[in-house]
Structures are given as structure tokens and as C-alpha cells.
Amino acid sequence: MKAALVLLALAPTAAFAQSNASADNAPHRGWSVGVAVAASDSPYVGEGARVLPFPILAYEGDRVFFRGISGGVHLLDTGAFQIDALVSARLDGFDIDDLGASGLAANGLDAARLDDRDHGLDVGAGVAWSGTWGRVRLQALTDVSDASGGHEFGAEYTYMLRSGAWLWMPSVGVRWMSDDLTNYYFGTLDAEVARGVPRYTPGAAVVPSLGITAARPLGERWNFIGGATWRVLPDALTDSPLLERGANGMPSIFGGVSYRF
Asked: According to the UniProt entry, where is the signal peptide (predicted)?
């Protein structure tokens, strides 16, 4: 279950809108549904590589939008410039039983003394600028579900290149994750330390990413979308005893089809 959620979270949800874009890069209004298959190599102990299907679901309205695990409201939309109120699921939680007890033991952790990590719900705001030079997005999110209580700030640049029927979208991004956020998902908790688990607190971290997404129409209403993403984990996170030794990133690939209503 954890792997399926990770794959859904890693799929670039902004690409759901762009996969249905018209020639002027404006997204078509209405619903899109479909199915995709994704592969991801989880850095957490014992999870390894998984290949799983997941649904594609997106909606683009004049003000309201929904893309996979996130959505929001356009507070201002001039076409080239947007200010959005955002809400997004954070699917970084996991059950300790899904991790490898022997691998955790090799890292000095007793699985019986560890707690599960909950998924979270983030809210925040985003700003985006678009032009012939590409698209820049900035966003700030904070956990309101009392899972981690952490914050995240992100920036991403995407260049949109059309080649015949294909739309190619290479991107580069960076996320700053607060210490509350990283300590919850990559560190050990106070309650666990009280049971004798070694304390590990990675602190705030910067996570760069590279990605490319490709999309093309398959007839009048069907679309293909696929892509790959690599998130580079800094040493503070890769040194976590919850992660496999030698893990240095979170790679994922996906591909699927969607139907626009």
C-alpha cells in the first residue's frame, strides 16, 4: 500500500493539466480520467522497487482545479500569471510492518519499538508565471493534519517544447523541508527514543529534483502522458536509519492514458 501511494505522490500532478493543453498551452476545461502504471525505487528499508497501476483524475475549471493528490482555487488568473490557494495530500506516511525488520535491526533500530508515520494534509499558496521561456512555480505548504506539523517551500522551472504532436516538459526543482517535517518522516520520534530507540534528527533539508514529462493526443479526447522524476536526497536524509544504506535518491517513472470529457 505504501508503495502505491509513493508512486502516486511522485507522479507530477501539474502535468495532468498540461497533458490536455491546447496549442496555446492553456488547459482544456473539464474532467480527465485514466489509468497509468508507475515504477519507483523506495529508499526506505525493505521496500525496494515496485511496479503498480494508479488512477489519473484531474479537473480544470475557471477557478477550481484538482490534479491527482492536490487541488485548489485560482485567486488570480491572467493566463500568464496565477496566484492559487492550495490543498494537497502528503503521502509520505508508512506502516512500520511494511519495512524490513532485519534491515532496521542492521541499522540499529528495533521495529517493535517504532511507530507508524501518518499521511498528512497540507494547505498553502502558490504563484506561477508562464511565457515562451517556460513556467516558474513557487509554493509554500504547511501541514494542518497534525501529522508532522512541518512546512515546505518549493520552486520549479518547466520548459514546454512542442515537437509535432508531442509536448515535452523537462523540469528542475528544489524543495526546502522544515526540521519538523524531516524529523517526522526520516528521523526517530521522542516516544520511540523513550523506548530506547537511538535518537536521529536530520533537521531541515533541501531536496533538488529533475524530471521530464511527455504528452501527446491519441485522437480527439484521449491523451498519452508519461515521464520520469529523480529526487536527490541530501546526506542528512540518506543517513537516516529508516533508509537503506546507500540510498541517495527517489527515482520514479510512469506512463498512462487519460480521457477528457
From this structure: 1-17
